[in-house]
Each structure stands twice: as C-alpha cells, then as structure tokens.
Amino acid sequence: MILYLESKNSMIMNNLILNASEKTPYFKLKSDGNFLFGGISMPEDAASFYFNIIDWLSDYYRNPKKETFVVVSFRYLNSSSSSMVLKIFNAFKRLQETDKTKIKCTWYYEEDDLDILDYVDQVKQHADNIEFEILPTDEIKAPVN
What we know:
This protein is α/β, with parallel strands linked by helices.
C-alpha cells in the first residue's frame, strides 16, 4: 500500500518497502531517490505484484530528487517478472528524458549466471540513457531488514 502524509502545503511521499518472500523480490524504494530491489521474482501474478511498484514510481516521477540511485540484484526472474522489470526501466528511461533527475544503476549478478547477465544487457540497451555499472558477485543475498 502507498501512503501519503499531509503537510501544510504539499503531500509527502512515503517510502515503499516490500520484504522478500520465497517467490517475490524485495523492494526498498525511498523517496530520497535511493532504490534497492532484487532477489527471486516468480510471483503467481507478476502484473498484480508489480502494480504498486510501478504506481509508486509514477508518483516519484512527478517530483524526483536531482539524483536517483538504483541498486539491483536478482537471483532469478521468470519471464513475466522480467517483462515487468523492463517496464520499470522503461519508466526510468522516460524519467531520465525529463532532465529532472540523473539516474545511475548498479546491477549485481552472480558471476556464473550468464542468463541474468544477458538480461541485464537487454535492459541496458533498452534504457540506453541511464548510466549502468554491471558488477559480478559471488552470491546474491537479500538485504537485512
């Protein structure tokens, strides 16, 4: 659920925090422009799972920070999830085009996972106006809550 707190003259955007489950990734989307997400993504209904995330990003789009930092580290994405993550990066691409923010993405992948690396390359080509750093790691772990 996305909540807003009212202040005197404007709405304050809350963070969106979703903890990982066996089938869903974690998302830590902070209104200060620091986004962290990854893990395993194979929800029963990817569109429903990702709806609130994309909706939150639409709200962030209205008033982003000058810099947006995205850190991604997926261990597994099923095909419907990979489509939804591509939609997220499409939103990032459109946001970058507004010149309201500079988006930088660091994407970690397990060094022996060539499928994820291929997918990251596809995302990078699609969101070609975003600065990417793609880094291998020994093991992808969910952050401590």
